[in-house]
Amino acid sequence: MKKLLVSILSIMLVCVMAFGFTACGDNPGGGDTPGGTPPAVDAEGNTIVKIMFHVDKSSTEGQAYQKRLNAFNAAYKDRNIKAQGVFKARSAGASGYETELLNNQLEGTLADIITFDAPNTAAYAKSGLLYDISGLIPASEQEKFYSLNKYNGGLYGLPIQESSAGFFYNKKIFRNAGIDVSAFTAENPWNFAQFKDVCSRLKSFGKIPVDMRIDATKDETAPYLLYPFIYAAGGEFTSTDGYTATGYYNSSATVKGFQFIKDLISAGYTSYAIGPTDFFTEKVGMYLSSGWTIPDLDNKYRDNFASRDDWGLLPYPKDVVAASATGSWSYAITNNHHTDKTAIVELLNWMTSAESSKAITDATGMIPARKDVVTNYAVGSPEYTLLKQLEVSGRERPVTVAYPTFSLTFNQVIAGLGTNEVSSLLNSATNTLQAEMDRLKKLN
């Protein structure tokens, strides 16, 4: 029997996700069920493998995916396997992609392979949405990835690309303000006090010091970019089993991490009113973002950033430890009960190959998910900084089946920092998250 929780799909992502995660299939955790269906076959006798992407087909990333699908179809034509891409753009501030996955799961129309955001691994696996591919991907192949999408002993996805983030900065502004940050590297990051000092000097120079992306609370942007500050301060969000928030999410160390962000707001070093292009038009000294900003700076904003002599990338600052963002989108085989996974695995292997990893990250500016992709990044380059930071301080967001609720409450805390006291915000967030964890734990 499927367990359904009545929910309203039009409210925020967490409620959409919560509805989907309790609509568990008869075989949660992966594996085919009796009475499964064979894969689709077209009129020419080709086995059709459908793959659903979270981006627009016309985007740079979407075009890279389509090129890899075209190459797959050419290579597998004689084997009568054909890939079909479905592009469902995940628009900013909306949960359309997640809603689409939910509807497909309930209707029994899931694509064979989907892309999904890595922090949702536990929630999706528990819901029965994802298929356990532990027995389909050899250990020797798994070892080639920087990270894997695992939950409760199973393997539920392989990353498309890896991610790291940092502070893009305007070298011209820094030079004119007499600020030298050359000593700060991924191996030797600055600290919270040094970060605030640089912000103070930028403000005195007449610039908005930093865009901390505190306005990006309608989707996963703020949680992804800002959670490392809490780890850096020694804080945690949940217990290791992902079912306890009390005493972690509202601990004194976690309060300290959020207080650092609040201090930046209070001092006027960042604000909720910074425009999306203010860094690119030289109104802001620093901009917190991920590798996806590299192609923009190299290609779209040449009037203000003619070359890489005009911009650089600084690592996350540390407090008691160094911590940086990691985790990106991944591929997963869905638990859509197609009995023969042979053709599906062929496409999964193709899309996660070294060749595909390089082609996609060349287009997106992100880090290849595979260790065997030759990068040869120049020491000190933005790409080198991201890769080295991933290796020395990268730490994933909390692994919990209640991740959608965590993401929502994190955004609520960030949105409230401008006018509310940190402890009260975290106590409220902790109570909300703990209640959802308790509910989900009862479904085991």
Please describe what this structure looks like.
The protein is an alpha/beta fold. It has two domains: 13-163 and 328-383, Periplasmic binding protein-like II (D-Maltodextrin-Binding Protein, domain 2), CATH 3.40.190; 165-325 and 402-441, Periplasmic binding protein-like II (D-Maltodextrin-Binding Protein, domain 2, 3-Layer(aba) Sandwich). Helices cover 38% and strands 13% of the residues. The chain is built from 15 helices and twelve strands. The chain has helices at residues 13-22, 60-75, 96-107, 121-127, 139-142, 171-177, 192-204, 221-232, 252-266, 293-299, 342-351, 354-364, 382-393, 403-416, 422-441; strands spanning 47-53, 81-87, 113-117, 149-151, 154-159, 161-162, 165-170, 208-211, 284-290, 311-314, 329-333, 367-368. The strands form three sheets. Strands 2-1-3-11-5-4 form a six-stranded mixed β-sheet, with helices on both faces. Helix 1 runs parallel beside helix 3 (96-107), helix 1 packs antiparallel against helix 14 (403-416) and helix 14 (403-416) packs antiparallel against helix 15 (422-441). The longest helix has 20 residues, at 422-441. The radius of gyration is 22 Å and the shape is globular.
How far do the termini sit from each other?
A: 14 Å
CATH topology of the largest domain: D-Maltodextrin-Binding Protein, domain 2
What is the SS-derived class? alpha/beta
Q: Just give the CATH class of the largest domain.
A: Alpha Beta
Q: What is the C-alpha radius of gyration, as a whole number of Å?
A: 22 Å
Helical amount: 25-40%
Fourth CATH level, the homologous superfamily of the largest domain? Periplasmic binding protein-like II
